[in-house]
Amino acid sequence: MRPNMRQIEAFNAVMRCGSVTQAAEQMFISQPAVSKLLKSFEESCGFALFTKVGGRLLPTAEARSLMIETDTLEAGFARIENTARAIRQMERGDISAMAYPALSLRALPLFAARFLRDRPNVRLSLHTRNSADIAGAMLTRMADFGISMVPSNDHGVICRPFAEISLVVALPAHHPLAGLHGPVDLRELRRDRLITLSHEDRSQQIVLETMSRAGVSMESNLEAQMADTACSLVSQGCGVALVPQLASIGWGPDKVVFRPLVQQPKLVMWLLLSAYDTPSQMVQTLISVIRRGVLDIEAGFAI
Question: Cys-Cys link to 99, which of 23, 103, 163, 219 (CB 3.0-4.6 A)?
Answer without folding.
Answer: 103
